[in-house]
Every structure is written in structure tokens, then in C-alpha cells.
Amino acid sequence: MTDLTSMTIAEAKAGLANKSFTSLELTDAHLAAMEAARSLNAFVLETPDQARAMARAIDARIAKGEGGPLAGIPLGIKDLFATKGVRTTACSKILGNFVPPYESTVTSQLWRDGAVMLGKLNNDEFAMGSSNETSCFGPVVNPWRREGSNTTLVPGGSSGGSASAVAALLCMGATATDTGGSIRQPAAFTATVGVKPTYGRCSRWGIVAFASSLDQAGPMARTVRDSAILMRSMAGHDPKDTTSVDIGVPDYEAAIGKSVKGMKIGIPREYRLDGMPTEIEKLWSEGAAWLKAAGADLVEVSLPHTKYALPAYYIVAPAEASSNLARYDGVRYGLRVPGRSIGELYENTRAEGFGDEVRRRVMIGTYVLSAGYYDAYYLRAQKVRTLIKKDFEDCFAKGISAILTPATPSAAFGVGEKGGADPVEMYLNDIFTVTVNMAGLPGIAVPAGKDAQGLPLGLQLIGRPFDEETLFSLGEVVEQAAGRFTPQRWW
Amino acid sequence: MNVSVKPGKLIKGQTGDWEVVIGMEIHAQVTSKSKLFSGASTEFGGEPNSHVSLVDAAMPGMLPVINEECVRQAVRTGLGLNAQINLRSVFDRKNYFYPDSPQGYQISQYKSPIVGEGEVVVELDGGKTATIGIERLHLEQDAGKLLHDQSPTMSYVDLNRCGVALMEIVSKPDIRDSEQAKAYVTKLRSILRYLGTCDGDMEKGSLRADVNVSVRKPGGPLGTRCEIKNMNSINFIGQAIEYEARRQIEIIEDGGTIDQETRLFDPNKGETRSMRSKEEAHDYRYFPDPDLLPLEFTQSYVDELKSKLPELPDQKKARFIEGLGLSPYDASVLVAERESAVFYETVLAGLADKARDGKLAANWVINELFGRLNKEGHGISDSPVSAAQLAAIVDLIGEGTISGKIAKDLFEIVWTEGGDPRELVEARGMKQVTDLGAIEKVVDDIIAANPDKVAQAKAKPQLAGWFVGQVMKQSGGKANPQAVNDLLKAKLGI
What we know:
The complex is a heterodimer of chains A (491) and B (494). Chain A has one domain (1-491): Amidase signature (AS) domain (Amidase signature (AS) enzymes), CATH 3.90.1300. Chain A is 38% helix and 13% strand. Chain A has 16 helices and eleven strands. Chain A has an eleven-stranded mixed β-sheet, with helices on both faces. In chain B, the strands form four sheets. In chain B, strands 1, 2, 6, 7, 10, 11, 12, 13 and 14 form a nine-stranded mixed β-sheet that branches. Chain B has 494 residues and is of the alpha+beta class. Chain A binds chain B through residues 81-82, 88, 90, 95, 98, 100-102, 104, 204-209, 211-213, 239-243, 319-320, 322-323, 325-327, 329, 331-333, 342-343, 346, 366, 369-371, 374, 378, and chain B through 54, 57-66, 93, 95, 97-99, 102-105, 155, 157, 283, 285-287, 290-293.
């Protein structure tokens, strides 16, 4: 059984194709692993009956020589994706037991390609958080622990359930979403691979919205190749999402192993923060050295507006969120806490339904959009955003193929350790990742090493718009050099 | 100050004359099969919540997709208003909480509307016109409808109308009295109906107006305005302006000041009353909708739509005046409603000699037909007399087969019994008698029988009218009046 869950998607595809095992066996192995790992709190809803039914159906198709690029592969789905007939809550009390009568475009493409759904994965409430501690279902536990310590660590967020489940071998891959780093930061914290595609690459239709101009779905998996396989099924133009882009989906897997010789890789000097831990510095230099060894040219570049990215992000994202979350009002679906007037119903419902972090962001967002503050905050933040985008454009215009940075400023931290007194402490986790969302670019986080306490660390590669392929090629070079990291099972 | 603004009727107060300054925001429902951002039907009168898509109900993860037909209609309307068409416009979110707005915001256009400045020429009494400037036109979503009468303890909401496309057409403050205001709405409605971009049905709420009213001493600085919301009748708009202007004048003349506020018109009492003050005004927190890209199209798209626009009322009116010699008044009456113009043009098409009888046909459509329709409460669409029948009647007059008087009898028969006018004239012997011999015999008989009248007529020629009447009476009105006159003059030697 263990063997079945520790395979990569690529290996499992081969095994299914040559009939070494069935999808049902593969699915059962994962369902058993999920049951044994409930202490991680990665899944908020297990769907074993549906999983087995899907596995049986796909086994029948495989037997007939049909199937699809993901035929029989069991996956976990972040609870932000609407799944038809299956409870979808965005891990917020306000959605209660909401069961959507529709399937998100991204997940429907996964099922089209033969994947099997194991269940819904935990995340920060409405994807607002960097530690998966804001979920109404409680925090997710990172399968990684510091050496010689039993301290419970966070898996990062907001896609903490996806990261934890993939790292702990509970599913072969998972869907995730990334608004400011929600795929790449948890990937770095759990030694998994996370891809934030170019804005517009994956349809947002059917994904609970956090900040529409920043949200993007992407895969989490255990290898660069697996993430490339998943990306191909998740990506694509969708007429139901006007911001999705009508560009053909390449065979991302074909980019794995392609030579990176002669590629110019930028090392942005502004990402070298004061007081950055030496192990992060060391990791970054190592990454650069691996790429150089593979034939790439390392070039120092400047992204001068980097320091404004985080403050600008924490204006734009809450502004959009304050409006996107207005629909959760207790009138049509989800939680309703009655009141004597419609105003009271709204207030009671939203006060009880939203957690602290969501309320904080709704208030910040409402404030920055208010008459008299709009120009000073929102408009200014949008101008900063344009400058950040231009920084990258200038860089790419000089022939830079991709930019290498650390994925996070530190390794995973303990549950309850950060942000209790000052939320900004938590927000600083996104310092290396938000620029990518602000500029709408693709980014990948790849495991690259461990810190002194034995916790995984990741590197981030940032690419040109719609050039995820280069990121897969480069990511695989890092992966080959760094090796793969698997947590010791303790749960 | 716009120099082309037409002065309006001033209102007399205790301290002298006052001028009213009016601007209007018209909400016109776009004629389209589906809603502005969803595929749900726009049909009126369905079961509550039967035309609601997942997008309209603001389900989690749903996204708006622009309906291109609504864009097309907005551009066509802009062209009909001689307005600037903006090749790039932006949809914004107007944020507010209310159960008629499931998203918690209305998608509208705030800073960059699809249509910019334009103008409308409106018809005033006595054939005068005024030009009213258009500030802008933008597209936005309509809201749902709350139902408060279904339960003693709860309110219900019907989302059928939620998300239907509206064009908000904002005028410049160029309107100066209630007559101009009514004429403006009438004309705008007419243009929209000609274009087929809004059905203009005010009773169903397809066309609603918010009216901004302020008063000032003629030529003085602008006063504080009040906005009268949601007017759905042209007459009420007139009444509301009259009331509101007088209310403001009284307050100012009593030493008070006008509070900027939103007011509602109560048609039963004929007065406006306060709805909310400026202090209670919402902060809508407008910002560009991140779910939608800016709306962009090319000039050739606009040119293509322009080339296919139908003839609009002003153009039609000019053609009627220049081509057919109609009076500006008659032309205005005929073009005011698209259906009337279509009817008249169908009559024209059925005439044997348009140049000769076009004007006569206009008189018949306006005076006989419209008069009768109004009297009996019919619309032009259910007129008992068809355009072809009316054309036949006009033909019969024009060619001299029947007199105008007989034509009225014929019209009555066609109205009540129907039938082919030409056959009716034949079958019922209504033809005008132009046979001089037959008329002469009647004239001779009457002269012979009334020597005293002959003597009187010779002395006083205007008394010859008595003979005309007698001849017409004996001929059953069918004698050609001109022939009768000529014969009488000759025989009586006058």
C-alpha cells in the first residue's frame, strides 16, 4: 500500500497503463492514508464513495484503452473550488453546508482527463492567510517537524491542506490557488512543488473569489514533472471567465529535461533583505550555482519597486475582497443569523460567519475604497502595481528568461507562533511572492534544501507571461540538483 | 453656460421671476434577449425567480460575461443621440448592501462610460424646438424586486429583473421648465423606440427617470438641487417639477435654504417628499470591476452599426416637410410615435399619386384616424381602418371620385363594417356626380320652383348658397360642388 501512495503521478500513470494496479487500488491506498492522517487536518471533507465510483469508472475506461492524461490519478481539491454536489465552503462558517449545483472549470477539466477526487482540502478562510490557521475547520498540521522536536508546525497557507496532503502522501497532487503566494509559500514549507500560473492561464470560474485581479489556480505535486502534468489539464481558455486568455495549452511535460543552456537568469538585488537568515542566502546561492552548472547565465538584475509590493498588495487584495465577499449576506445560501431588520440580518450573519482575518481584510478593503481615501490608497496602489509590472517587463526586455529568488523568508513556523499580536508579521511571509501576483506572472516554488533544523526550504522561479514551460525546465534542474525531500512519518 | 439653452417659462414668486433648472437621468431597459452579464432571459412577467442564472444569484465563484448585444444596442443608442462613442470604456462596481442586489454591488460604468456627449432636439408647443445636451450614456445592471406583501413577517425577493441591462442616459442641466422636460422624455423615448433599443414602456418600468430640479433668479448662479427619483410617467414628471420648483421658491423666499436630498413624488397628493438627505447618501466605493476587462471595440464596428441605423424621427420629419410639403406640426405629429410614422408611410405607399395626395393623406391620418382612435381608446396597432383602406379613401378623394364630405361617410362605413372602399363607393352609389347634364336638370328644376329666391340671389349674390345647398340635398351630396357653383352662377347671371 505504501508503495502506491509514494509514487509520483508519472510513475502511477505508467503503472496504470501497464495494469500493475488499478485506479481503485490506487484510490483505496490513498483513502486509507487519509484516514490514518486525520490528525494533520488536511482534508475538511473526504469523499470515499465518490472517489471509488470515479476510480471504477475510469478503470473501465482504461480497460477499453481509453482514459485521459490523468486517468485514474487520485487528487485532493482545495475547498475553494466549487464541486458539484459536494460541500464547498472556502473553509468559512459563512458558507455553512453550501453544496454547489455546479463544478468549477478547472476541476471539471481534471475529471474530463480522468482524475479521481479524494475529497476537499483545508485552506485559510477564503484563502486569506499564510499559515492555514484562519480556517473555520482549524489549522492544518505540517507533516514536517523540526529535528528532535514535537512542535506542531504550520504548512503555510492559504493552500495548507493541499501542501500537507501532497507532502504526507495523502494524494498524488492537489489543486490550489495563489493570490499573494498561497501556492508557493506552502510548497516551500512542505518540500512540494507549487506552480502559480500566469494570470489568465487557468479559468477562475467556479473558484470562490478572494481578489479577482490576483487569484489564479495552480497545481501542487511532489515533482516538477507531476506539476507539469497537472498544469496541462488545469489550464485553458474559458469563455465563462473574461480574464482567461485564449492561448493554446502546450505540453508542459515536454519542457522537462529541456536544456537551459544559455538562458539568462536574473538575480534581483532588491530581494536581498536586511537580516535575511544566512541559510536562505546560502540556498539562493546554491540554486544559482546549480543553474549555472546547467549552462545558464546568472545576471544581477534590479526590480526597484519591490519594496512597495507588499504594502500595495495589502491594499489591492483587501479592496477586491471587501467587494467580492459582499455576496455572503445570509439572504440566498449559507449561514443566516436572523435579525429584526435586513440590516441586522446582514450584521449578525457576517459577524458570526466571518473569522477575524477575513473581517480585518473586509474592513481594510472597505476603508481604502471609501470616498476621500480611494485616491490615496487604492489608486496609488494600482499605480505601484503598474510600476512593479514594468520592473519585470524591463528585466525581460533585456533578455532575461526567468528570475530566481527564495520562495519564503524562513522555513515553516509553529502553530500560533506568528501574527498573534501583529498581523503584519504574518503578511511578511508573502514578501517574495506577492510581486508575481501583482505583475500577473507565472512562478514556481521548488524544494531546494533544508534549514539547520531539518525543515525544507524552497526557491522560486519567476517567468515571462505564459512561459510556464521555461519554469518547468529550470525547476527540474533545481530538483535534480537538490534531490527530493520526504517527511518522516510520525502521524 | 450653454448659450443654446432655450429659456423656459419663468415662475412668478413674491420676489419676482424664478427660473427652473432641470437635468435628468433616464434609465432605459435595453431590448435584448438575455441579461447584461448572464444568459438568463429578460422576458417580462415570468414566475418570480424563473429567469435567474447562477451569475444573477451571485453564487460563489460565478463571473460576469458581457452580452455583446447590449453593447451593440448602447452604441446604436449613442449614435441616435448624435453622441461621442467611446471605443474604450470600463465597468465599475458600485457597492451597496440590499437584497435586490445579490452581488452586493451593481456593475455599472462610472468614470469611463461607453457613450459621451450628444444632443437631442425636442419639439415644443407652437412648432418651436429646443436642444438638450446629453452628458453621457452608460450601461449598468438593473436590480431585483422586493415583495413586501407576501407574508406578514418576511419580505421576498424576485431576481427576474436582476442583471437586466439598463442604459442610464444623463442629460446636461439644459432643461428650463416642465414642458421642456416632458418634451425631452417624449423625444428620447421616441428615438429609443425607433432604434429598437428600448421598448419605452413606462408602465412596465422599461423607462424611468430621476429628475434633478433647482431654481434660481434668471441668469443667476445655480441653486441647490433635489433629485426626484424613479418617475415612470411623463405627466407625473411635469407635475413633480411644477410642485418641486414652487416648493423650493417658497422656501427660499421665506428665507430658508434648500437641502440637497433625494425626494419621491406622490401622484395621489401631487407632491414630492423627502426620501433621504445628502448626509444619508451611500458611499458606493466605486472601483473598476476586476472580473471584467475594459470594453473595447473598433471605429469600424461603430461605422458598421451607424450605416445600418434606421431613419430617426428628426430625419423622417425633415423628409416629410421637404418631400411632401407637410407642415412642421403635422410632420412632428406623424413621426412622434414610430408606429404612427410606419402607418402613415404605409398609407403613402398605397397612394396612386403620392405627390398630389401625400398632404391630404397626412390630414386624414392625423384628423380623421387619430381623432377617432383617441375618441374610442384604440391604438394605431389595433386600428379598425387599415393603412391600405385609408389610402384607397384618399385616392378616391384625390382623383375626384368622391367629395370630402362623402369620404367621411365612407370612412364611417369602413370603420364600422370594413370592406374595400372603392367597391363600397361603387356598390352604394356614393360616386360624385360630375355629369353636367344631370346636375343642370336639378339646377333648372330648383330655379324654376323658386322665383322669389332667384330674385333675392340676383340682388344679393351671397344668397346663392341657398341654391347650392338645395342641389346638394337633392343629389344626396354626390353632385360635384364646383360644377354646381359654376352652373348656378351662369344660370342666375351672378
